[in-house]
Amino acid sequence: MTARTETEEVERANTTFYEAMERGDFDTLSGLWLEGDDGISCVHPGWPVLNGRGDVLRSYALIMANTEYIQFFLTDVSVAVRSDTAVVTCTENILSGGPAEENGDLGPLVGQLVVATNVFRRTSEGWKMWAHHGSPVLAETDEEPDDETPA
Predict the structure, then answer these.
(1) What's the predicted TM-score (pTM) here?
(2) What's the pLDDT tens digit per position in 48-72?
(3) Are 136 and 112 in contact (CB under 8 A)?
(4) Cβ 96 vs Cβ 67: under 8 Å
(5) From CA 11, how far away is CA 78, in angstroms rounded?
(6) Which residue, 147, 132, 146, is CA-closest to 39?
(7) The CATH number of domain 3-135 is 3.30.429.10
(8) Contacts of 80 by beta carbon, 8 Å cutoff, 6+ apart
(9) Which residues, 6 or more positions from 24, have their beta carbon under 8 angstroms from its beta carbon?
(10) Which of 37, 92, 93, 126 is most buried, taking the most CB atoms under 10 A from its CB?
């Protein structure tokens, strides 16, 4: 298998992960995570670290149950494959909406930036998620750094 093909397979697994979240497809999302509890971990923005497949999958079930709408626009995607491990870093540009209003309309949409690291392991069934870590981007600046040294 060529490095290009491996990279494409990891990119496909990563994209499938986000598409499953958008559709609220818990079965597909569950199938993307490694079986067993061999070091599986997840950090959602603002959450403590979750260890073990059961806790990680419960967190996604909770998020899906309480999110009426979510869409990810991934930017700055970088994939590194070394042997049977792959690391994907990206920026998640997230648009989400909470539970519907009393009149049935979608709740207010909120935008958020999260930088994420997704770690995959190669298995006989393809690339499976081993760890996910999302960290909120709290501030963005377009300003150039000040070259002056304070006195």
Answers:
(1) 0.84
(2) 999 999 999 999 999 999 888 899 9
(3) yes
(4) yes
(5) 9
(6) 132
(7) no
(8) 86, 87
(9) 64, 67
(10) 92
